[in-house]
């Protein structure tokens, strides 16, 4: 009996290769290629007056220097479109003032790091030396840095975009303002989250080769969206799309930044390769990644809520000022997600979400793991804590009272989600999740522990946060499954992999559907030669989208295998099963060679009628071996040769996973250093395909969440220089900072897809900032409203708290009432 | 960019004389970061990696003499008993890989106010040996740091060695960083205690334009120890330092700093954290001194 693979925590089959250094990342390819370096803008906002390359021209090894003028000349001479701005990937009617960059800056630069000149040379050292000798004269313009400057709009990023406002969008269900005004209690919170970034270990990179004889272009790029890059390159360079192959080799992390495309470099490098007739490669260095890829997270928020005596949300108004940087290639996805996913597992009586998406002279902002959800979760969970404190209720009680109940599923929020579809939760059981979390972290006994700790002079606090995550957004993914005549099963899907374990997870699904050992299944992702139709890897969608597509394709293959086998064995297909790669009559003991079973490899041979035998196995399918009716065509009219199938999965809308995290922290009373004592996660992503991979995803997400809560920020000075653009000063958590993650699962299947699965890729990161804010607030006795928080900042808050500038919380874990902490929280004065 | 790769110390000095603008590079843990980020574009690099005699250490008169290219890892492994403060500081530098590459001479040469080795060198009265084709000179480490990333090394000179008196009492080093490991200090502090001789050395890092001694705090503590007769009662395991002395010492250390607000922390936090570090290290140093007393009896 084949062990059922779905649900098995088998080790990731990618790991032996990747952890022993056998991975082939972008920079491992194209050893002999010409190399590219860019002159990038040193100014946040400036007009380009003049570019002088005279000094650079005599450098040995220089091959070419390109500026915007060369792109324009090329467009004029041929049919390329490189002198036009890069595409607006996701237009939206409310994005009234979109703006995208030119591949090389035209007249103006709008952030430090924007590419101005491309240099191609025999190696990177030479290319960098050439860059040093190119003189670009700039007329420096005032820079708009930070949300306050963007809102104030004394200066404009783009002179024709008033108020620096790219978009203003409102979504409302019910009359939230009236509901708040009429509520017995009201609170108002001002919150802030700083910029962070995906920061994959491997930066971006592109390697292109043009075959002038074949007129084909092959491009390797470290991307999350190979098929879309292919389409973009074909369009921009005017090459027929069937002459463009795009391959994502091993990709050393993406976390969202590599779903943006085409990056300027993704069209410029292939263009140079075609123009020069040489292989050309560019590998991003870390500083380039900091200043010329993308960031996320930066928002200011205002929450106004009205609630009843029990803490039930009667109305909520959520305003967001979202810093989207210099350009808007990825549209409004992040702020739309923030202002919809803010609702989490709760059901306010009325809701109004509103955002302004604002231009600044800084690096563009596009989705980073969580993609706006961490900010939304932060807003709602800070609000829940504030309500609990205001009413003197336990923080879990307020949450419980606001949960959407399991019997209310599917729950329609009456809003439009990031995929243009309704924000309708498909399934979930939030009360059960909270019960599990409380049990896991020991919520009810924490007060006792805190009191003990306090008696020892230690400060500890507990916090929690809940979230719901729309995952598996459409429009579709597909998969191709083929059984080779060796019995090997090859699977291809078009979306890409950045280390998540997709090969393992997809192999488990196909192995189960087909009835073959998982070891015999090989999976290819992100190679347009193998699968041309795909959307990409983002929004925790691979297991949902490609997973279900692979299951559906495998089911087709299985049906065909049973049909062919039933003819060969002369039994009804419904009497057959496939076990361990052998089709056999159900209930009959295995006996190789008997007329009751046939290996899948033989079925694959028989599926492809042959004229020529190239080996003994193939001989079975040749014309004098197969027999059958000489009146029928060897391939039936509605049939195709080969034991293979393609299928697609396209869901009506997203499926909604959920989770709840709790943390226990200790803050040093003297140095204000913050230590994580425990971190607990309960998680519901529907049916688990591979629990080990899901937990790995959670651990990685929590690690990034710890970074976002305690360490990572982008420190821009007022001139728009990124002051901490290196790993010396942009601190990411190491193993020494990432807590042991204690995990428990709930499995509420999604009714939307055949496998009943929901996405899990982003889960870990979403509530982390909210959890830490909650726990640190509990430890300190005042509300944290701005993340991330460093020891220096916590020290400052303590000083302000001591000076009476910050109101105390009414209740804290382990603090007995009556300590004189009963000061009213700030009430909305309206 | 010229790349100079001498194989002997004499060639290195000759190269430095010929190319005074050349930036010496040993482990490259600072220089290469600067070059990669575009901040540093020297006309020439002078690679000291082939000059093997720079990586030795030994005894020289009353001193431990550390060649400039002795890496942190060897300081930790081989010198932690002889120069405990320096060993503790070296242990907090970067990651194992960086501690394998990075050198004490490189740390000094960069002259960063945040260099981890600087406070322990200040508290043990280390001497820096500079060499050029003109000859060799030795200067006290207190005269080495002139400003942020500015040192007393002349354009034609290279750092040859660091001379460290062996420890004759408890030494401590502590730093506050935003992260637990691999982090540039928000502030750091080193302390050396020799109660038998009644003196105290205290030094501050990452909280001013140069790493600096906290002389007033040193004097206060020295006097407090003498006044209360601690010095004469050396080795008595039962003597605890009064909290008031510890607290005042912390305040004076904080007052000696001249920190700024930057990416890593505010000036106010740095002062506060320094006073905490000073008090903590003083308690630890005193404990270890008392511990030694206990062992003697």
Question: Order of SSEs of chain B, N→C?
Answer: EHEHEEEHHHHHEEEEEEEEEHHH
Principal-axes shape call of chain A? globular
The biggest beta sheet of chain A is recorded as:
7 strands, mixed
The largest sheet of chain B has its strands arranged as 4-5-10-6-7
| Assigned CATH architecture of the domain at 171-289 in chain B | 2-Layer Sandwich
Tertiary shape of chain B: globular
Return the average pLDDT of chain A rounded to an integer.
Answer: 94
* Main sheet makeup of chain B: 5 strands, antiparallel
Instruction: Find the CATH superfamily of the domain at 171-289 in chain B.
Output: CO dehydrogenase flavoprotein, C-terminal domain
Helix content, binned percent of chain A:
25-40%
**Structural class computed from helices and strand pairing of chain A:** alpha+beta
CATH topology value of the domain at 299-473 and 652-814 in chain A: Aldehyde Oxidoreductase, domain 4
Determine the mean pLDDT of chain B.
90
| Terminal residue distance of chain A | 69 Å
β-strand number of chain A: 29
Radius of gyration of chain B: 20 Å
The number of helical elements of chain B comes to: 10
CATH class of the domain at 171-289 in chain B: Alpha Beta
Task: Sum this structure up briefly.
Chain A has 830 residues and is an alpha+beta fold. Chain A is built from 21 helices and 29 strands.
Descriptive report:
The complex is a heterodimer of chains A (830) and B (297). Among the domains of chain A are: 299-473 and 652-814, Aldehyde Oxidoreductase, domain 4 (2-Layer Sandwich); 474-607 and 642-649, 2-Layer Sandwich (Aldehyde Oxidoreductase, domain 4), CATH 3.30.365. In chain A, strands 3-5-1-12-9-10-11 form a seven-stranded mixed beta sheet, with helices on both faces. A six-stranded mixed beta sheet of chain A has the order 7-15-14-13-8-29, with helices on both faces. Chain A has a four-stranded mixed beta sheet with strand order 18-26-27-28, sandwiched between helices. Helices cover 28% and strands 23% of the residues of chain A. By secondary structure, chain A is an alpha+beta fold. The radius of gyration of chain A is 29 Å and the shape is globular. Chain A is built from 21 helices and 29 strands. By secondary structure, chain B is α+β, with helices and mostly antiparallel strands. Among the domains of chain B are: 1-47, no CATH class; 171-289, Enolase-like, domain 1 (2-Layer Sandwich). Chain B contains ten helices and 14 strands. In chain B, the strands form four sheets. In chain B, strands 4-5-10-6-7 form a five-stranded antiparallel beta sheet. A four-stranded antiparallel beta sheet of chain B has the order 11-12-13-14. In chain B, strands 1-3-2 form a three-stranded parallel beta sheet, covered by helices on one side. In chain B, helix 3 crosses helix 4 (84-91), helix 8 runs antiparallel to helix 9 (243-256) and helix 9 crosses helix 10. Chains A and B meet through helix 21 of A and helix 10 of B.
């Amino acid at each position: 009996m084949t062990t059922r693979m779905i649900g098995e925590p088998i080790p990731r089959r990618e790991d032996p290769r990747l952890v022993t250094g056998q991975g082939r990342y972008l920079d491992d390819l194209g050893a002999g290629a010409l190399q590219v370096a860019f002159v990038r803008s040193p100014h946040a906002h400036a007009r380009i007056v003049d570019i002088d390359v005279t000094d650079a021209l005599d450098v040995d090894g220089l091959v070419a220097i390109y500026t915007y003028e060369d792109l324009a000349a090329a467009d004029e001479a041929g049919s390329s479109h490189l002198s036009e701005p890069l595409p607006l990937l996701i237009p939206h009617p409310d994005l009234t003032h979109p703006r995208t960059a030119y591949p090389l800056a035209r007249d103006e630069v709008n952030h430090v790091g924007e590419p101005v000149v491309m240099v191609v040379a025999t190696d990177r050292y030479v290319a960098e030396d050439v860059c040093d000798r190119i003189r670009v004269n700039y007329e420096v313009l005032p820079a708009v840095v930070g949300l306050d400057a963007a809102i104030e709009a004394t200066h404009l990023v783009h002179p024709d975009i008033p108020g620096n406002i790219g978009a203003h969008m409102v979504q409302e269900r019910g009359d939230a303002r009236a509901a708040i005004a009429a509520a017995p209690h009201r609170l108002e919170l001002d919150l802030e989250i700083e910029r962070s970034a995906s920061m994959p270990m491997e930066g971006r990179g592109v390697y292109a080769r043009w075959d002038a004889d074949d007129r084909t272009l092959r491009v390797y790029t470290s991307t999350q969206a190979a098929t879309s890059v292919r389409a973009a390159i074909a369009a921009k360079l005017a090459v027929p799309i069937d002459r463009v192959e795009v391959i994502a080799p091993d990709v050393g992390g993406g976390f969202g930044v590599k779903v943006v495309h085409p990056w300027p470099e993704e069209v410029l490098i292939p263009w140079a390769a075609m123009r020069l007739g040489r292989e050309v490669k560019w590998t991003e260095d870390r500083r380039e990644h900091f200043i010329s890829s993308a960031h996320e997270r930066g928002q200011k928020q205002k929450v106004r809520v009205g609630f009843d005596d029990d803490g039930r949300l009667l109305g909520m108004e959520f305003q967001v000022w979202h810093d989207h940087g210099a350009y808007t290639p990825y549209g409004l996805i992040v702020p739309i997600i923030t202002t919809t996913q803010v609702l989490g597992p709760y059901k306010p009586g009325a809701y109004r979400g509103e955002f302004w998406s604002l231009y600044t002279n800084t690096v563009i902002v596009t989705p980073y793991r969580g993609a706006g959800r961490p900010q939304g979760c932060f807003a709602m969970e800070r609000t829940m804590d504030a309500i609990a404190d205001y009413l003197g209720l336990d923080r879990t009680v307020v949450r419980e009272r606001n949960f959407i109940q399991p019997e209310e599923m599917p729950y329609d929020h009456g809003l439009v989600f990031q995929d243009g579809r309704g924000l309708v939760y498909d399934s979930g059981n939030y009360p059960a999740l909270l019960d599990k979390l409380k049990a896991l972290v020991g919520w009810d006994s924490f007060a006792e522990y805190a009191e003990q700790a306090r008696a020892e002079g230690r400060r500890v606090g507990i916090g929690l946060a809940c979230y719901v995550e729309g995952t598996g957004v459409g429009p579709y993914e597909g998969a191709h499954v083929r059984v080779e005549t060796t019995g090997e099963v090859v699977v291809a899907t078009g979306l890409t992999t950045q280390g998540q374990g997709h090969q393992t997870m997809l192999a488990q699904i196909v192995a189960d559907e087909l009835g073959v050992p998982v070891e015999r299944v090989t999976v290819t992702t992100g190679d347009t030669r193998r699968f041309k139709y795909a959307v990409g890897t983002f929004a925790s969608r691979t297991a949902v989208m490609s997973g279900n597509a692979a299951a559906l394709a495998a089911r087709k293959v299985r049906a065909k295998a049973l049909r062919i086998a039933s003819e060969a064995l002369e039994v009804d297909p419904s009497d057959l099963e496939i076990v361990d790669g052998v089709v056999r009559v159900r209930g009959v003991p295995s006996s190789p060679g008997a007329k009751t079973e046939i290996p899948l490899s033989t079925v694959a041979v028989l599926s492809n009628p042959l004229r020529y035998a190239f080996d003994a196995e193939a001989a079975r399918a040749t014309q004098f071996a197969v027999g059958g009716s000489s009146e029928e065509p060897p391939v039936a009219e509605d049939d195709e040769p080969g034991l293979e199938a393609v299928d697609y999965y396209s869901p009506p809308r997203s499926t909604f996973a959920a989770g709840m995290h709790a943390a226990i922290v200790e803050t040093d009373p003297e140095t204000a250093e913050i230590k994580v004592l425990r971190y607990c996660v309960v998680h519901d992503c529907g049916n688990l395909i591979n629990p080990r991979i899901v937990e790995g995803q959670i651990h990685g997400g929590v690690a990034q969440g710890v970074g976002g809560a305690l360490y990572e920020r982008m420190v821009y000075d007022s001139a728009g220089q990124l002051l901490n653009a290196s790993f010396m000063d942009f601190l990411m958590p190491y193993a020494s900072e990432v807590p042991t993650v204690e995990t428990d699962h709930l499995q509420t299947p999604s009714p939307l897809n055949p496998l009943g699965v929901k996405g899990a890729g982003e889960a870990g990161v979403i509530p982390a900032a909210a959890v830490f804010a909650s726990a640190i607030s509990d430890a300190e006795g005042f509300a944290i409203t701005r993340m991330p928080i460093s020891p220096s900042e916590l020290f400052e808050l303590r000083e302000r708290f001591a000076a009476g500038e910050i109101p105390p919380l009414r209740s804290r874990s382990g603090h007995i009432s009556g300590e004189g902490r009963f000061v009213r929280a700030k009430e909305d004065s309206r | 960019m010229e790349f100079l790769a001498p194989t002997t110390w004499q060639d290195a000095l000759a190269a430095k004389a010929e190319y005074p603008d050349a930036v010496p590079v040993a482990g490259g843990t600072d220089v290469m970061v600067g070059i990669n980020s575009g901040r540093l574009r020297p006309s020439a690099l002078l690679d000291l990696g082939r000059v093997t005699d720079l990586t030795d250490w030994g005894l020289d008169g009353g001193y431990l003499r550390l060649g400039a290219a002795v890496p942190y890892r060897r300081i930790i492994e081989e010198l932690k008993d002889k120069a405990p403060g320096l060993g503790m500081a070296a242990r907090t530098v970067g990651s194992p890989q960086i501690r394998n590459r990075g050198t004490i001479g490189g740390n000094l040469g960069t002259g960063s106010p945040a260099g981890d080795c600087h406070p322990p060198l200040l508290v043990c009265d280390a001497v820096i040996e500079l060499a050029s084709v003109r000859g060799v000179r030795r200067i006290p480490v207190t005269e080495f740091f002139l400003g942020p990333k500015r040192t007393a090394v002349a354009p034609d000179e290279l750092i040859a060695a660091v001379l460290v008196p062996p420890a004759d009492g408890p030494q401590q080093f502590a730093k506050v960083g935003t992260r637990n490991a691999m982090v540039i200090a928000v502030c750091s502090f080193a302390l050396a205690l020799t109660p038998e001789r009644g003196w105290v050395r205290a030094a501050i890092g990452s909280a001013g334009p140069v790493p600096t001694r906290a002389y007033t705090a040193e004097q206060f503590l020295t006097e407090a120890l003498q006044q209360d007769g601690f010095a004469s009662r050396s080795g008595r395991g039962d003597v605890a330092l009064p909290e008031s002395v510890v607290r005042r010492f912390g305040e004076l250390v904080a007052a000696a700093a001249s920190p700024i607000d930057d990416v890593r922390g505010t000036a106010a936090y740095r002062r506060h954290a320094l006073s905490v570090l000073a008090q903590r290290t003083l308690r630890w140093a005193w404990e270890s001194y008392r511990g030694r007393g206990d062992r003697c009896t």
